[in-house]
Design brief:
Length: 151
Amino acid sequence: MLLYRIAKEQYANDLSGYGAKLFGGRWNLIGTPCLYTSQSRALALLEYSVNVSIDFMPSKLCFSVIEIQDHLIEFVDNNDLPLNWNTIPSSSSTKIFGSEKLNSSGFPVLRLPSVVIPNEYNFIINPLKIDSGDIKISGIEEYEFDFRIKK
């Protein structure tokens, strides 16, 4: 399966999950490393756009195209999610749920719904459970942010 991640150029090759570990996210507590990826470039861009203020939006970004084996993915049932999984800002129960799932799941990748487009999916990767042969960046594509998206 191909997954997509958008980031500043200097982080395009980074699969450590260090940024999410430092700052946390919807599905992880601070201290839990993970990589937020999406099923498409468009969803990755939308997710990035809603989470970064226009004042801090870099004009140059990169899409990382990530290859991962399908059998490594746990398809989390929406009925198992916390009731408030899609609140803005994200709830602590969602962060706890995601962190516990990342640590306890027998799968290194979780498929979870997007808040921006609930019928599309983000894939949260636990880099601590991935062997080097299980994941690879098959391409890095430069992208110049179109600021009309944020205006």
